[in-house]
Specification:
Blueprint (H helix, E strand, L loop, with lengths): L2 H13 L2 H7 L4 H15 L4 E4 L2 E4 L1 H24 L7 E7 L1 H4 L3 H11 L3 E7 L2 H9 L5 E5 L7 E9 L1 E5 L9 E3 L8 E3 L5 H13 L6 E3 L3 H9 L4 E5 H10 L3 E6 L5 E8 L5 H15 L4 E2 L1
Parallel strand pairs: 3-4, 3-5, 8-12, 9-10, 9-11
Antiparallel strand pairs: 1-2, 5-13, 6-13, 6-14, 7-11, 7-12
Helix pairs in contact: 1-2, 1-3, 1-4, 2-3, 6-11
Length: 298
């Protein structure tokens, strides 16, 4: 039995269409269709019921799903058991966020390359909302983000927390002062993307104080927000690892604001599938990298 055909069967079943499975497996839709046809011919039965816009498992296909997943898990375990990490060849799709890129992602990649030098990493940087959606739809192998992602079939690994800090250009004259959050009501605020967890928390803090929020500018590029803060466009709320170098250079000042802004909770998220051993191993490395980085706590 061809394991590639079995893998294709599993992904078609999970995603509900040949097209989606083809995208996930980096294959053509015709190739996926041919693999399923060959597997069905070998088994002497139909594994799927064809419908407009997709497919669903037949009665036989439903019975075959668990053994197929176990077969893939056994195959992956076999490869890991008999081969050294240096010879583990695969490409893993990883989604992450700006905060992690500027904190410990380089540390994570260095550790992965040390242990699995033949492993390819396909990186995608976006918001936590977008990355969470991608991993929920099984379009990513591993997500490193503000979590958890509460979706069926996903495993969340705690990566600790990341502190945030208020910063502003020295021209604002806010450094070295004890400030209240309401003292920022007359300044433009630069921060995380709209409807993100930090954005919602910030609005809630103003609401709890009974203060009208200032004008808030959002972006999924925290690098852009930091650049604007440095140029005196507004006061910024950003992850500590991002702002530390700018503070050291004296181009922005860290502000003392009450109440304190909650630390961001970070998670590694991957599909809790039987054969998903590599993302599971990488999540352990991600935790090591996160906890070894300044500004991160368990």
């Amino acid at each position: 039995m061809n394991l590639r055909f079995v893998e294709t069967f599993v992904w078609v079943a999970r995603l509900g269409s040949f097209r989606a499975a083809a995208e996930r497996l980096n294959a053509t839709q015709a190739a996926v269709s041919n693999r399923i046809a060959s597997l069905e011919a070998e088994m002497g039965c139909e594994l799927f019921e064809r419908m407009p816009g997709g497919v669903r498992l037949s009665t036989v296909g439903q019975r075959a799903m668990q053994p197929a997943e176990e077969l893939l898990k056994a195959a992956t375990s076999f490869k890991v058991a008999i081969g050294s990490p240096q010879h583990l060849r695969a490409t893993v799709s990883i989604g992450t966020i700006d905060s992690i890129v500027h904190a410990w992602l380089p540390n994570f990649i260095e550790r992965v390359k040390e242990r699995f030098p033949s492993l390819g990493l396909d990186l995608n940087v976006d918001t936590s909302l977008a990355i969470g959606r991608e991993v929920s739809e099984r379009r990513l192998d591993l997500a490193l983000l503000m979590g958890p992602v509460l979706s069926p079939g996903l495993k969340n690994i705690d990566l600790g927390t990341m502190e945030c800090a208020w910063v502003a250009a020295p021209s604002f004259g806010l450094g070295g002062r004890e400030l209240r959050l309401q003292d920022l009501s007359s300044y433009p605020v630069l921060t995380f993307s709209r409807n993100s967890v930090p954005h919602i928390w910030l609005l809630r803090q103003f609401e709890e104080l009974g203060v009208q929020p200032p004008v808030i500018s959002n972006s999924n590029s925290l690098s852009a927000m930091l650049r604007l803060a440095r140029d005196g466009i507004g006061v910024a709320l950003l992850p500590v690892p991002m702002v530390v170098p700018m503070i050291a250079e004296g181009v922005v000042e860290r502000l003392s604001i009450t109440p304190h802004f909650p630390a961001l909770k970070l998670h590694a998220v991957y599909a809790d599938d039987p054969e998903n051993l590599i993302p599971s191993m990488l999540s352990v490395i991600a935790r090591e990298a996160s906890l070894d980085t300044t500004g991160i706590t368990a």
